[in-house]
């Protein structure tokens, strides 16, 4: 029997939270052994999430509550800023914190976002890390990519920050709508679908490298060395895609692969978890880990609404 759409949407949210919370213990480490991840998995107590999950839940709620009205960047900017204001300790990037502070003081998000990094705007992975919920409401690949770019632009004025959100949004859409388990994931088709929509050479090169690394069975450290594992969008989204396509049928394996590469482990774990959770559904996530997540009940409530949010079809 197939997994229900609601279970897949919940898998997307809980996969994000699980990858984020498991990865958070290792953020910034050079490399992470399986044994240290085992220890975090086996421990008791709450798995505390970071900014990645906090903002993903804000976006999911925004989309679920607005139904036919769709995305409103002005409203969403205020909601993001309020989440940061309420819990600034969740490990936000310095650029994101600065934008949210400016928005909170009344500056339009467009001006706040372009003020970062000497006017270049941010190319951090903060737009990509929170984007996955748009996959549940987009009407097709181009629409999903557009929604992804628009949600990122609130904080990430640099095109690389926005391209990262487009790629991750689209990957989540494919995992949710087209590549459901147990159908075998066609990695070349997956890469082709991503590159068709996101027309940018630097991204195509990285995604081609993913296919090659999968073919050669690269381990996480090798993959991270080749693709990157840092806080930039171009230096982290390809590793998340790699983690997923090399472990398409097992969300925990995808997350462990992402964390094993070291670097921005909470974020790469969150993005890989979103993809594998969306493909396989929440019911495939280990109960003992899900029970330790902070967002459990809230995610279930939002997933139910998001799975039936109205601006789909066409
Ligand atoms: N920031 C972190 N983790 C490190 C500190 C957390 C600490 N342990 C704590 O507990 O507080 N994690 C979170 O940030 C990443 C997402 O970042 P986001 O939202 O994109 O922020 P930002 O600051 O805009 O970009 C991140 C960094 O990228 C570099 N950068 C971006 N654009 C640049 C540009 N145009 N020129 C030069 N550098 C640029 C900067 O170093 C930014 O600070 C996630 O990992 C999330 O988990
Ligand atoms: Mg984080
Ligand atoms: Mg408006
Ligand atoms: Mg991070």
Automatic annotation (TrEMBL):
The entry's keywords: Hydrolase, Magnesium, Metal-binding
Free-text cofactor note: Binds 2 magnesium ions per subunit.
Gene Ontology MF annotations: hydrolase activity; metal ion binding
Cofactor(s) listed in the protein's UniProt record: Mg(2+)
UniProt-recorded name of the protein: ADP-ribosylglycohydrolase family protein
Residues the record lists as binding Mg(2+): 50-52, 264, 266-267
Domain of life: Bacteria
Organism: Haloechinothrix aidingensis
């Amino acid at each position: 029997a197939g997994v229900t759409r609601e279970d897949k949407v919940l898998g997307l949210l809980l996969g994000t939270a699980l990858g984020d919370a498991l990865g958070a213990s290792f953020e910034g480490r050079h490399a992470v052994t399986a044994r240290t991840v085992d220890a975090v998995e086996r421990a008791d107590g709450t798995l505390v999430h970071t900014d990645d999950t906090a903002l993903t839940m804000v976006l999911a709620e925004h989309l679920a509550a607005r139904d036919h009205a769709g995305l409103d960047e002005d409203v969403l900017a205020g909601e993001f800023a309020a989440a940061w204001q309420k819990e600034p300790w969740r490990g936000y990037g310095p650029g994101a914190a600065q934008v949210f502070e400016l928005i909170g003081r009344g500056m339009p998000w467009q001006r706040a976002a372009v003020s970062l990094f000497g006017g270049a705007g941010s190319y951090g992975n903060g737009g990509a890390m929170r984007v996955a919920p748009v996959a549940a409401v987009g009407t097709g690949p181009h629409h999903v990519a557009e929604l992804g770019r628009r949600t990122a632009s609130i904080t990430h004025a640099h095109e690389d920050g926005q391209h990262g959100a487009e790629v991750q949004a689209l990957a989540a859409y494919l995992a949710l709508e087209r590549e459901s388990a147990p159908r075998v994931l066609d990695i070349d088709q997956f890469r082709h679908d991503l590159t068709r929509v996101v027309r940018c050479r630097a991204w195509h090169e990285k995604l081609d490298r993913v296919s090659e690394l999968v073919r050669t069975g690269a381990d996480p450290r090798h993959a991270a060395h080749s693709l990157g594992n840092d806080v930039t969008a171009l230096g982290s989204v390809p590793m998340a895609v790699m983690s997923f396509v090399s472990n398409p049928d097992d969300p925990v394996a995808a997350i462990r692969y992402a964390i094993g590469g070291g670097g921005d482990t909470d974020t790469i774990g969150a993005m890989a978890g979103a993809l594998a959770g969306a493909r396989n559904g929440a019911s495939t996530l280990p109960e003992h880990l899900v029970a330790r997540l902070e967002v459990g009940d809230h995610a279930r409530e939002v997933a139910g609404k998001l799975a039936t949010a109205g601006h789909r079809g066409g």
